[in-house]
């Protein structure tokens, strides 16, 4: 009789791992502590809940590494990508979703699968026996984190992640804000107008930065060090790096024309992205924050068009835990010291929804293959998934290991691109063409 696979954590990685293993014919027990045990960031007990943004980022599978990862996951029969596309929202060239509908759909599919059962409640220790995948994500419970730390003999690595606020659409002043994607990106009018834009003059921007720097911030506990991941910096941390930093980051005014005053060039622009299918909620793009709630409402209402904003959710900050994967995991994502346990998702040191889910996909397939009596080699390093798993299981420098998004810098160079003989766009297309061919061959070898 086929042995069961136990998966701890029903986030994006755990959900994808469960789906892949069950589709391979292996019985799965999915352990999820929510809603009995909550976290700072989660609102529900559903699987694959998106807590920070509702975007899976670029969907361009020809010239973007994230979009390529979308393509690979879809080619591998990924549940996360299937549900994301079914519940997508207009977002220019990005893949954004109605987060509640998306999470509910993933939950329904997993609970309906005949080979998946759900065990509710917290797992507090690393199991000694059986086949397990730990996919508890950046908000791993304290008890399990202590067990992991005790087993590895090393201090847990951590950084702080921040959540952007969500605004009720009806409270946005549309006589000030206008609809437009940067550079009118998108194939349809809906895509080209996927974002709301709030313009700032130079005096308004300067006043906003002053208020941001002076606002009350969340304090850290004794002994904690604020080691932020650069891809998700709180806006006040960016502002502390220089007064113009935000204007060259999430508040850059390029590629936008004010529909109300086309002759006026904004000094800075705050963008909001639709957060649900009804269009009743918008999140402020790139505005992760560690300001206290009262300060947030005051500072964000300084943004033109948001003077009377009503917030469905204010921003927040939480501690993210990840392991030093290059020292702890083998190429099968197993703990070297405890090979019956695999790790997957953001706890392994990949950063981002898509990256986390893709590592869940690989862990689920690898565990299923092992249970059925064979080994599944990782995808070639020329693919997005292969480049990521190579990075976290040995390609990265262990002493300086930090969370990493997928990017073409993790891929082996193209022979014809050596010496700069190929332009960037052609080079990126070369990476994706090669990856798709190699990934297709990797999949075909499993059939």
TrEMBL record:
NCBIfam families: gid_trmFO, PRK05335.1. GO terms for biological process: tRNA methylation; tRNA wobble uridine modification. InterPro entries: FAD/NAD-bd_sf, MnmG-rel, MnmG-rel_CS, MnmG_N, TrmFO. Its cofactor is FAD. NAD-binding protein involved in the addition of a carboxymethylaminomethyl (cmnm) group at the wobble position (U34) of certain tRNAs, forming tRNA-cmnm(5)s(2)U34. Keywords: Cytoplasm, FAD, Flavoprotein, Methyltransferase, NAD, NADP, Transferase, tRNA processing. It catalyses: uridine(54) in tRNA + (6R)-5,10-methylene-5,6,7,8-tetrahydrofolate + NADPH + H(+) = 5-methyluridine(54) in tRNA + (6S)-5,6,7,8-tetrahydrofolate + NADP(+); uridine(54) in tRNA + (6R)-5,10-methylene-5,6,7,8-tetrahydrofolate + NADH + H(+) = 5-methyluridine(54) in tRNA + (6S)-5,6,7,8-tetrahydrofolate + NAD(+). Coiled coil: none annotated. The keyword NAD applies. Belongs to the MnmG family. TrmFO subfamily. GO terms for cellular component: cytosol. The gene is trmFO. Its EC number is 2.1.1.74. HAMAP family: TrmFO. It comes from the Bacteria. This is Methylenetetrahydrofolate--tRNA-(uracil-5-)-methyltransferase TrmFO. It is found in: Cytoplasm.
């Amino acid at each position: 009789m086929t042995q069961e696979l136990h998966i701890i954590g029903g986030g994006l990685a755990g959900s994808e791992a469960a789906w892949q293993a069950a589709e391979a014919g292996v019985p799965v027990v999915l352990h999820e502590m929510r809603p009995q045990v909550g976290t700072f960031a989660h609102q529900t007990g559903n699987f694959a809940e998106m807590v920070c943004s509702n975007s899976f980022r670029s969907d361009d599978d020809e010239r973007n590494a994230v979009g390529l990862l979308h393509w690979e996951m879809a080619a591998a029969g990924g549940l996360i990508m299937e549900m994301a596309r079914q519940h997508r929202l207009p977002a220019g060239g990005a893949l954004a979703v109605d987060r509640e509908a998306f999470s509910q759909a993933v939950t329904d599919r997993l609970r309906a699968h005949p080979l998946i059962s759900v065990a509710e409640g917290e797992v507090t220790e690393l199991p000694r026996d059986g086949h397990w995948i730990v996919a508890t994500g950046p908000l791993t419970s304290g008890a399990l984190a202590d067990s992991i730390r005790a087993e590895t003999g090393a201090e847990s690595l951590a950084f702080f992640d921040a959540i952007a606020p969500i605004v009720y659409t009806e409270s946005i002043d549309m006589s000030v804000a206008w609809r437009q994607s940067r550079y009118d990106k998108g194939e349809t009018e809906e895509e080209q107008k996927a974002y709301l834009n709030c313009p700032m003059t130079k005096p308004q921007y300067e006043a906003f930065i002053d208020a941001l720097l002076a606002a009350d911030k969340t304090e850290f506990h004794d002994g904690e060090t604020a080691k932020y991941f650069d891809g998700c910096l709180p806006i006040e941390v960016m502002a502390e790096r220089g007064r113009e930093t935000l204007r060259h980051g999430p508040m850059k005014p390029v590629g936008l024309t004010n529909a109300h005053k086309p002759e006026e060039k904004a000094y800075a622009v705050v963008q909001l992205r639709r957060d649900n299918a009804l269009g009743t909620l918008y999140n402020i793009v790139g505005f992760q924050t560690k300001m206290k709630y009262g300060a947030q409402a005051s500072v964000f209402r300084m943004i033109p068009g948001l003077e009377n904003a009503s917030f469905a959710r204010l921003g927040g900050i939480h501690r993210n835990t990840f392991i030093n994967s290059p020292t702890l995991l083998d190429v099968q994502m197993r703990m070297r010291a405890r090979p019956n346990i695999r790790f997957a998702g953001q706890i392994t040191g990949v950063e981002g929804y898509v990256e986390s889910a893709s590592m869940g996909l690989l862990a689920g397939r690898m565990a299923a293959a092992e249970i059925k009596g064979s080994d599944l080699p990782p995808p070639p390093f020329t693919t997005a998934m292969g480049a990521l798993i190579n990075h976290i299981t040995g390609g990265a420098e262990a002493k300086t290991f930090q969370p990493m998004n997928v990017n073409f810098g993790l891929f082996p160079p193209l022979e014809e691109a050596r010496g700069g003989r190929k332009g960037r766009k052609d080079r990126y297309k070369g990476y994706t063409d090669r990856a798709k061919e190699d990934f297709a061959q990797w999949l075909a070898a499993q059939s």
